[in-house]
Hints:
By secondary structure, the protein is mainly alpha-helical. 54% of the residues lie in helices and 11% in strands.
Amino acid sequence: MNATAPSAEQAQQDIAEEFAFFGDWSERYQYLIDLGKQLPPFPDECKTEEHRVHGCQSMVWLVPSGDAAKMHFAAASDSAIVSGLIALVLRVYSDRPAAEIVATEPEFVQSIGLAKHLSPTRSNGLSAMLAKLKGYAAQALA
C-alpha cells in the first residue's frame, strides 16, 4: 500500500474527527450531501442489475475491480444522502487489500452517530452495501 493513503483505521478516525466539527445533524447531512457530490463520475453502462445493491430504498450500484492485493470500488446512487454514505464507505474500504476489507468493521457508522440518525431503510441499505463490498473482497480471497 502506498504511504500516502491512510489505513482503513485511520480513515475511520479522520471521518469521526471531521463529523465532530459539526454541531447538529442538519450540518452533518449537508456535509454528507457535499461529499456525495465529490464522487467521481459513474459510467451509465455500469448501472446494471448485476452491479445493483439490493436492500437499498434508493438505487445504488457498486462495481469492484482489482484483485486480492488491492481492490478498488466505484459506486453511485440516485440519492444525495446515500451518495454521501457511499463516499464514506469508499474512503474506508476502496484501494485496500481484500483481507483488510474483510477484517475492517465499519466503526465510523457508530462513531459519527449515523446509526442513530439514519432511517431504517437507509440503515438497511448501508448494511447491504457493506455486505456486498465485503462479499466481493471475500471472493477475491477465495
